[in-house]
Amino acid sequence: MNKIEAIIKPFKLDDVKNALNKIGVTGMTVSEVKGFGRQRGHKEIYRGAEYQVDFVHKIKLDVVVEKSLTSAVITAITETARTGKVGDGKIFVFPVAEAVRIRTGETGIKAV
């Protein structure tokens, strides 16, 4: 199993969720996060004064899937979340050694 962690723009969440549902992803965890990458935030103007916004609002998706589905999930997220502008996000992939469903005790991919 692999855990795929994707940081995306908030307005892309519904599109990404629908794309993942189409390829068989049955669950995910979504978190509102703040951060910055190479862009180091951005500048905004409020009442005529310019100020620096260091942390940009993003959405973090966590999805655990079978290894065979990893490539399809990455493709779906990349194609759906891409705007072509700075700050589209990142995808990270981590191996998952084990998963356990607390309610039933199921393990492995059955627990996901």
Which fold name fills CATH's third level, the topology? Alpha-Beta Plaits
> Which shape, going by the Cα principal axes?
elongated
| CA-based gyration radius | 17 Å
* Main sheet characteristics: 4 strands, antiparallel
**Beta-strand proportion:** 35-45%
Strand order of the largest sheet: 2-5-1-6
End-to-end Cα distance, whole Å, is 9 Å
**H/E series:** EHEEEEHE
Instruction: Work out the count of structural domains.
Output: 1
CATH architecture field: 2-Layer Sandwich
Q: Spans with pLDDT under 50 lasting ≥5 residues?
A: none
CATH class group:
Alpha Beta
Architecture blueprint of SSEs:
Layout: E1 2-8, H1 13-22, E2 29-35, E3 42-46, E4 49-53, E5 56-65, H2 70-81, E6 89-95
Antiparallel strand pairs: 1-5, 1-6, 2-5, 3-4
Helix pairs in contact: 1-2
Any overview of this molecule?
The structure is a single chain. The chain is of the alpha+beta class. The protein has a single domain, classed as Alpha-Beta Plaits (2-Layer Sandwich). Helices cover 20% and strands 37% of the residues. It has a four-stranded antiparallel β-sheet, with helices on one face. Helix 1 (13-22) runs antiparallel to helix 2. The chain is elongated. The chain starts with a strand and ends in a 17-residue tail after the last strand.
Q: What is the structure about, briefly put?
A:
The chain has 112 residues and is of the alpha+beta class. Helix content is 20%, strand content 37%. The chain has a single domain (2-111), classed as Alpha-Beta Plaits.
Feature tags:
Alpha-Beta Plaits; two-stranded antiparallel sheet; 2 helices; alpha+beta; 112 residues
